[in-house]
Amino acid sequence: MQVSDLFIYPLKSARGIALPSSAIDAFGLPGDRRAMITDADGQCITQRELQDLARIDVRPEAAAFRLLMDGKGEIAVPPPQPDRRMDVVIWKTPVNAAVADDGSNSRLSEWLGREVKLVFFDAAAERIASPEWAGPDTPVTFADGYQILVTTTGSLKALNADLASHAEGEIGMERFRPNIVIDIDEPWPEDRWAAIEIAGIRLDLVKPCARCIMTTQDQVTGSRDVPNPMPAMGRVRMSADRRVPGPLFGWNATPRGTGTIAIGDTVTVIEERPEGWAFKVRNRA
Description:
By secondary structure, the protein is mainly beta. The chain is 12% helix and 33% strand. It has helices spanning 102-112, 131-134, 153-165, 230-236; strands spanning 2-8, 17-19, 21-24, 35-38, 44-45, 56-60, 65-69, 73-77, 85-90, 93-99, 117-120, 148-152, 180-183, 193-198, 201-210, 248-255, 259-262, 267-272. It starts with a strand and ends in a 13-residue tail after the last strand.
């Protein structure tokens, strides 16, 4: 069992970047979800309501944050000024974030057809993951809730098998926007993993990931006229635990150390939850 893919998503809901290796720190993979699009009032905007975010490429650079969008050109966003700030909200959690320059925000608003702002989780920003699941004082950036998302190839294969059995097509792992993909033949082993170790770093799998409409969108075009994994997840992955309702795929993980991981690294299960996770039994016919 080994790491097969690593990804970061520098701009929340925009395209991801594949990596051969990555450092791990308290926030997860450095550079992941460090920027976000908001409305004029600071409310987070994602692909859920603005599908065109899937068309934006991000190229972090030393002196700029370069954005490219199909058919629109590019924007070289200068480093944000630390005293240019606003309060933003991500899933009811307030964060005081740095704000991009007016020119960049104006261009982005033109691209997306509505007034938006680009904000950054800089050194002065603070946000803590839910202590109920991740424990006390674990920092997180603009990810939905936790530091790292882990998925497995065996689980995607099982989901695609159900899709195929209902003539519903096939999907790729990019639909689930993971950070760490683990190569394993067995389906759904992650439901039993309480903690894994990669390159000497412990990762606690703290909460399964409930999935939403973003999984139904092509992650290059934003189109929803593509195979939809939601029916299959409804048949085989519908949570029976009220704490995390809905269809589940992947697990949120919290790092308990620092270091560097790479594609090909061995993954070791160091703690299990024998009870797994409770799922509803559905008629799969």
